Each structure stands twice: as C-alpha cells, then as structure tokens.
Amino acid sequence: MGARSDLIYLDNPATSWPKPPCVTEAIVRFLNETGANPGRSAHRLAVASGRVLYEAREAVAELFNAPDPMCVVFCHNVTEALNLALCGYLRPGDHVIITSMEHNSVMRPLRELERQGVAISVVACSPQGFLEPADVEAAIRRETVLIVVNHASNVVGTILPVAQIGQIARRYGLLLLVDAAQTGGCYPIDMEADGIDLLAFTGHKALYGPTGTGGLIIGERVDLERLRPLKRGGTGSRSEYEEQPDFLPDRYESGTPNVVGLAGLSAGVRWVLSQGVASIRAHEMELTQQLIAGLQAIPGVTVYGGLDARRQTATVSFNIAGMYPSEAGLRLDEEYGILCRVGLHCAPNAHKTIGTFPYGTVRFGLSIFNTAAEVERAVEAVHALACSSRREQ
Q: 179 φ, ψ to 5°?
C-alpha cells in the first residue's frame, strides 16, 4: 500500500488514504500511454481516451445500479454535483425539504437560492443524528418539488433512511436528491431499489479515486429540460450548433474532462467492486465498534452519535473534557502521529443538532486499510490526552 511509517491516518471522511496501487497505476498508464482529449478528435489516442471515460461511467453505474452509464455526469467533486442539482433544478416559488445534518455543500447553495425565492424546510434530526421518515412526510407542501438527504453524516456517521424517504418521494411525485459523499463505496447504494432520482458522489473518499473527481447520476424521472446546466461550452458533440446539446451526459459536461483523474477513479471503483461493498462494510463496522467501545471507556471523553456501528459509517466524533478539539487534534498529530480532523467539519447545523457548536469535535474516520492495532493505538493516545487534561484541571 506504500509507506505509512508510524503515522495512523484517520482522516478518511475528508479524503481516503492510502489508495489501492491500481489507482496510481491507472493514472500513470493514462499519462504515459494515452493522454489525449476524448471526443474532440478521431485519432487512435483520442478514441482510447474516450474509452477510458466511458469505462469510468460504466464502473460508477454498476456500483450504484444507475439506469444507464450515460446518466453518469462527471464533475470536479460532490460539491459541484450538488450545486448542479440544486441550482439547476430549483426555481423561485419551489419548496425543498432538507435535514439538520446537511453539509455546507447543500446548505450554502440553498441559502443563496432562498434569497432568490426558494423556500426551505429543515427537518430536525435527533441529538444522535437520526431522522424519522414521518417527519419528512409531515414537511411536504403543495409547492414541494425536492427532498435532499445526506445519506450519512460526515460528523457522526449516522445513516439516514434513504429507501424509506425514497418511497415517500415517489408517493408524492417528488424527486429525491441524495448526498452520498460519505457512503459511496463503503455502504450499499442501489438507485432503483432506494428510489433515488439524483445521486451526488465524490471520487476521493471511499471510492479511492484521486481528488478532483465526482459526479451526479441523473435518474429517469428527472426532467432534463428543467435541470439547467451550471456551465455551457464545448462538448465535442453537435459542434455545428451554438446551443448546448440537450442529451446526457453532454448537456452537463462542457470543456475537457479530467480524464487522468477519472482513469484513477475508474480503477478505484473497480477495486471496490472486486473487494465487495459488503466486505468493506463488515471490516469497517468491526473497527468502528472497537473504536466506540474504547473511547466510551475513557473517563472524561464524550462520544457522539448513535454509538452503534450497524447504524453508522466508520466516522466517530468525540471530545475530551477540558480540552478544545483544536488542541486535541494538534497533540494527536505531533505527539502520537495520529492524523484526524477537528472543528465543525463544514457542517455547523449538524453540530448544533448534536450539541457541539461552536467548537465542534475531534473526528476519527476509518477505512478498509485501517487495522485493529491502529484503533488500539488511537484509543491509547486519547486516553493519555484525557489523563493529562484531568491533571491540568
């Protein structure tokens, strides 16, 4: 997997590391052997580049059971994908339902749209970060057109009931947009079975691809005429027209794509498929329960969320009594070689929900490459910090 030295990397909810070797190999192979612009020329390298791009669509579509590979629209990240869905679909006078656990990649576009006349209802989650589907149904109005759900919290990992909300959306003729930044690759997602109309995903987390990759998968119930592009320009198709193409994926993909990154993403997704999402999930659940139990046993440490690995991803947030999260994170890095994230994690409303605003939490996030021994070392480090904090009080 490459040299990890004595570091313990627990910042996987931000970006996964290390990557499977096949990801690096795919990136280098593309640069060394292909390198051309897809769809713009007819020579052999351009055709090979186009094949890489399509194979990435196929891999993503297979993983999420998308309607068709051509429904996979690639973006720079999940943030761009969410902006495409929200800013492209919503109009003044529309009503959208979201949860109190949403990331700023949802909240900030919506607050701007609110200024333009879009109404927003925020359905409160429990202090553990869970959501009751009935509360979503109760928020539906005549003007409601869209429900937006963070599949799993990037703060405490709690998994929201997407399939049940999908049933509600279908019953009322609404669209369901799912932010799968924290679940894509490490938790089963089936767009058809879960009733998902718009799935925003990122490549650099549990899909093990490079940064600068992600996308929006557009389901068959979405009206493309209503869903406006974020940008317009060259697509390599219909070049005789000055108007943007009206078909997928070209309607939403203008300019030269990040093919080298998507070559890496394709390899990452194929690696996830070869391992099996269920197998990855089982490994992460085992480590997560070990981590939760270990942290809960430390006097002065508060662990947030549902405290049940079966109901969350491998993301665990906690605080040490008498110590700011920022101090704890710095000491974990400098004294113990444990790399994590602290603060509000770009999700202030989630921290208000769980009662940790404005300072936030210390967040540990595991992946398939972490081990039980690393979890044990991390717990021991937190125990040592908690002991030093008690002595200083």
A: -90, 105
The closest of 113, 108, 106 to 147, measured between CA atoms, is 106
Among left, alpha and beta (phi > 0; psi -120 to 50; other), residue 122 is: beta
Q: How many helices (H) and strands (E) does the chain have?
A: 12, 13
Phi-psi map region of 293: left, alpha, beta (phi>0 left; psi -120 to 50 alpha): alpha
Give the chain's domains with CATH numbers: 8-19+276-392 (3.90.1150.10), 21-275 (3.40.640.10)
At residue 392, the pLDDT reads 77
Q: Are strands 8-9 and 338-339 parallel, antiparallel or unpaired?
A: parallel
Contact 148, 119 (CB under 8 A): no
Which residues, in sequence order, are CB contacts of 69 under 8 Å at separation 6+? Answer: 54, 57, 58, 60, 61
What's the whole-number average pLDDT of the chain?
Answer: 96
pLDDT in tens, 186-204: 999 999 999 999 999 999 9
Q: Are strands 144-150 and 95-99 parallel, antiparallel or unpaired?
A: parallel
In sign, the C-alpha dihedral spanning 65, 71, 74, 75 is negative
pTM above 0.85, yes or no: yes
Q: Which two tokens stand for residue 145?
A: 């057109």
The pLDDT of 74-85, averaged and rounded, is 98
* Model confidence band, residue 1 (pLDDT cutoffs 50, 70, 90): very low
End-to-end CA distance of the chain: 42
